[in-house]
Amino acid sequence: MSKMSEHLLEIDDRRFLWHPFTQMAEWEEETPLVIEHGEGAVVYDIHGREYLDGVSSLWVNAHGHRHPTIDEAIRRQLDAIAHSTLLGLANVPSVQLARKLVEITPHHLTRVFFSDNGSTAVEIALKMAFQFQQQTGETQRTQFVSFHNAYHGDTIGSVSVGGIDLFHATYKPMLFKSLKAQYPYCYRCYLGKSYPECELACRESIEEILAKNHENVAAVIIEPLVQGAGGMVTSPPGFLSLVRDLCNRYGILLILDEVATGFGRTGRMFALEHEGVEPDFLCLAKAITGGYLPLAATLTTDQVYQAFCGEYSEFKTFFHGHSYTGNPLACAAALANLEIFEKEKTLDHLKEKIDFLGKLLESVKDLPHVGDIRRSGFMVGIELVKDRATREPYPYAEKIGAGVCLKCREKGVILRPLGNVVVLMPPLCITHEQLEKLVEVTTWAIGEITS
Ligand code: PLP
């Protein structure tokens, strides 16, 4: 690419694009980093500069960029057909993928509904849960229970069950109400207690909400083990199964949003495996295609599925679908992604890398402005604080997390923060050497920005 076209891209980006979750007035003042190609855990910009992809291109990449198996699967599918609809027709890779997803998830999940992204996977679970209750005589079950600090996507339904004021408060008048329980954020425990002595006292929040409202609740939705966008907030062992038990007690459906945690991120294929929890709905997206193409899946049980079956004139149909539902290219990529997990024994190799990352992070713990390091497998949140003793946060407007991430770029590492939390979520294929670089550069940048 000539210098001239590189420059033009940088200008046109600022002229024509509107970037997500971005203050565009500030963006326009800076020269954007324009990515041109990638290889494994590394991406390159239009000037040929190399960067470690420390957040897996926003939590989606699994086995690296340009993995030959996925590249080849997409090319092969292109030679057959790029897209054909699932409305009134079936297509080869979506059938194969549905079977595969049913095989690798808990045995009672038997049906797959495809869509395009994490938000739609959640919308579908919410609408199915609502309609299920309506069609099984539980017409008073119209409410949802979700968690403070939760993030389930940006469409109106998923925002309604979200709990991050910064993102969600503006839209309140547009949203349906959901009852909000406390998620265990141990570093900033709302009860002022410490784990494990607390014996999960925060369970009282969801227990009380359900005890009081259970007759009207259609479903509980939760991010299992880790609230991702809420700041990589990890819940202590037992919390997830406790939520499942409560749902069982009151006949409430459980929706697990594994959009971020799915496909190896926590060290297991799915986070639910850590506690053997069986949900009524499982929402998958992000790494489902190994980070190649937009695709999502909402899995559910035969019990839910059967409630939608009947004569056409009964109108029990799930009237929902998207133009690209079950897109063959994306499904082919997803099949190849799962094939790599099997052939390369990705999860077996990951165990050792997760331990290694844990050891590397030991040294970060003692930095003067690191308040907390939370981690589940390859999902890491480093919470920076103004004062370690009092846990006083940096004012949001100081953009301390963003400052650290920008600094990292000087040494060839791409990160993206969540407020004061620096997030590391490398691709599963990252090497030991690259993990060392990731933590080394992050440590350096935290030192530079907070000192
Ligand atoms: N659910 C969770 C837990 C997420 O982390 C995200 C995105 O970060 C979403 C849903 C929304 O996914 P998407 O951005 O693909 O709509």
Characterise the protein shown here.
This protein is an alpha/beta fold and about 450 residues long. Helix content is about 35%, strand content about 20%. It has 15 helices and 18 strands. The strands form 4 sheets. It has a 7-stranded mixed sheet with strand order 4-12-11-10-7-5-6, with helices on both faces. The longest helix is centred in the last third of the chain and has 19 residues, at about 430-450. Pyridoxal-5'-phosphate binds near residues 119, 122 and 257.
Largest sheet: 7 strands, mixed
Number of helices: 15
* Spatial shape: globular
Taking the alpha carbons of the first and last residues, their distance comes to 39 Å
Q: Structural class per helix/strand content? A: alpha/beta
Labels describing this entry:
single chain; 451 residues; alpha/beta; 7-stranded mixed beta sheet; 5-stranded antiparallel beta sheet; 15 helices; 18 strands; 18% strand; binds pyridoxal-5'-phosphate
Helix/strand layout:
Elements: H1 3-16, H2 24-27, E1 35-39, E2 42-45, E3 50-53, H3 56-59, H4 68-80, H5 92-104, E4 109-115, H6 118-135, E5 143-147, H7 156-160, H8 165-168, E6 178-181, H9 203-213, E7 217-222, E8 226-227, E9 233-234, H10 239-250, E10 253-257, E11 281-284, E12 296-301, H11 302-306, H12 328-343, H13 346-362, E13 370-376, E14 379-387, E15 392-393, H14 400-410, E16 413-414, E17 416-418, E18 421-424, H15 432-450
Parallel strand pairs: 3-16, 5-6, 5-7, 7-10, 10-11
Antiparallel strand pairs: 1-2, 2-3, 4-12, 8-9, 11-12, 13-14, 14-15, 14-18, 17-18
Helix pairs in contact: 4-12, 5-12, 9-10, 13-15, 14-15
The protein binds pyridoxal-5'-phosphate.
